[in-house]
Design a protein that fits this description.
CATH class of the largest domain: Alpha Beta
Largest sheet: 7 strands, mixed
Number of strands: 23
Mean pLDDT: 94
Strand content: 25-35%
Bound molecules: adenosine-5'-triphosphate
Shape: globular
Strand order of the largest sheet: 3-9-10-16-13-12-11
Low-confidence stretches: none
CATH superfamily of the largest domain: Bira Bifunctional Protein, Domain 2
CATH architecture of the largest domain: 2-Layer Sandwich
Number of domains: 3
Helix content: 25-40%
Length: 442
């Protein structure tokens, strides 16, 4: 259970995200829609940066993983084969007193309403999470279709096309990022449980005998992604190995992050056996087996999956980065004031470098520096307000470096670089500035 202080952190973070245009309610002028979130300018930049990092790490840097971009709506038989139409459901309970609706598996005590404490609850009812729509002008069952509940099913369905086109031999992986939709009973914890979200998934096809080696390999690779590339401290992450497994799986784990509201899953690494490939073979009538020339045998590939939610990673980065500390201020009657900052890894910060002329007069020089730096980094130029205020603004959006242009710059061809976290200020000459920043950002 989250303490009031932890809930307070979440409330402050949600307010910051809205104020600075990271993330806010979708269609807010119509009072929003529960479980749907828009990413504003800083949010979308950060989301793209994390997605690009994932894509480079999982696809571009490897010879044995290729990409796919499938449609959100597929032939509905895909979801029949995958089991989603029959089994992708949660048990839902309604409180007859306060009328709130809950997911039964998330209730601490299934006999008591977590909102009002009432014992007057309905019997649990199964509720399918697939979002339904209709394709074509006739709105009947024959024309029903579904928004994908996960990005991986089209990977299985397109396996043969991708394998042939990319001339890959087993073992190899297919990756895809994109929107997924779930009609969650109880969207909550800001973007953590949304109804529309982005997944980044990779399905790795291999021989069954080698599948546990690959499972362990991907477990280590995914841990490295969070600790090395995204710089999450190891004590805020943990691996939860499942003890209950699906009948076809040999292993499964969740990578969890310590959110202010408790540990929450950000990624699953799953051994899926030949389940998906055999189901799609059965339902489509197309043989999805693979002929292994070296071994001279034909078999259905075994799949190891890595599956993460981009929105949950962004939320984890924001939670990890949110800081409040005391800093000197020029405000009247005060020596110090609360400084809010977002300690984001430079590689994914929406603004990596802010260029700030001390006064308007220095604008020409500062603009020239800005024009040069923005070719290499995500930059912002800011002239409005006192320099202290401008630093605060950049701290709040997580800018790791502020480059200040002052009168000395005209003489010594150097600028002051302020570090967001250490609050140190270093004088760097203009002919060194790009390599200085590159060494710390890229
Ligand atoms: P949960 O148990 O939290 O509902 P899950 O086990 O159903 O998650 P998966 O189906 O394994 O999740 O999906 C893989 C990843 O997709 C999750 O680790 C998570 O990061 C993300 N994800 C799943 N559901 C949501 C959601 N409703 N909102 C945001 N991200 C989600």
């Amino acid at each position: 259970m989250a303490t009031p202080r932890e809930n307070d952190t979440m409330a402050k973070l949600v307010a910051l995200c809205k104020r600075r245009g990271f993330i806010f309610q979708s269609s807010e002028i119509y009072e929003g829609i529960n479980g749907f979130w828009d990413y504003g300018p800083y949010g979308v930049t950060m989301r793209r940066a994390v997605e690009n990092l994932w894509w480079k790490y999982m696809v571009e840097d490897r010879e044995n993983v290729v990409g796919l971009d499938s449609t959100i709506i597929c032939n509905p038989r895909v979801w029949k084969a995958s089991g989603h139409l029959d089994q992708f459901s949660d048990a839902m309970v309604d409180c007859l007193d306060c009328k709130k609706r809950h997911r039964q598996d998330q209730m601490e005590d299934p006999t008591t309403c977590p909102a009002c404490g009432s014992k007057k609850l309905t019997e649990p009812r199964e509720f399918n999470l697939m979002m339904k729509t209709f394709v074509g002008p006739v709105f009947d069952e024959e024309h029903a279709a579904y928004l994908r509940a996960e990005t991986c099913q089209p990977i299985f369905v397109d396996f043969e096309q991708v394998r042939v086109a990319s001339r890959q031999k087993l073992p190899f992986g297919i990756a895809q990022t994109g929107k997924a939709f779930r009609n969650e009973i109880n969207p909550r914890f800001f973007t953590f449980r949304s109804r529309e979200f982005v997944q980044m998934e990779m399905e790795f096809f291999c021989k069954d005998a080698e599948s546990m080696d690959w499972y362990n390999y991907w477990r280590a690779e995914r841990w490295k992604f969070y600790t090395d590339l995204l710089q999450f401290p190891e004590d805020q992450l943990r691996i939860h190995d499942h003890d209950k497994l699906a009948h076809y799986a040999k292993a499964a784990l969740d990578i969890e992050f310590a959110f202010p509201f408790g540990w929450g899953e950000i990624e699953g690494v799953h051994h899926r056996g030949t389940w998906d490939m055999s189901r799609h073979t059965e339902y489509s009538g197309k043989d999805l087996s693979y002929f292994d020339q070296e071994a001279n045998e034909r078999y259905l590939p075994t799949v190891v999956e890595t599956s993460c939610g981009l929105d949950r990673i962004i939320l984890a980065l924001l939670c990890r980065g949110y800081r409040e500390d005391l800093a000197d201020t020029q405000k009247e009657d005060k020596d110090q004031d609360v400084r809010v900052s977002l300690s984001l890894p430079p590689a994914v910060a929406p603004v990596q470098v802010a260029v700030l002329p001390l006064v308007k007069k220095l604008g020409d020089k500062a603009e020239a520096i800005y024009a040069d730096l923005r070719r290499a980094f995500r930059c912002e130029y800011d002239l409005a307000g006192s320099i202290g205020k401008r630093y605060r603004r950049q701290d709040e959006i997580g800018t790791p470096f502020c480059v200040t242009v002052d009168f000395d710059t005209l003489e010594d061809q150097a600028v002051t670089v302020r570090d967001r976290d250490a609050m140190t200020q270093e004088r760097i000459s203009l002919d060194q500035i790009k390599s200085y920043l590159a060494g710390r950002i890229l």
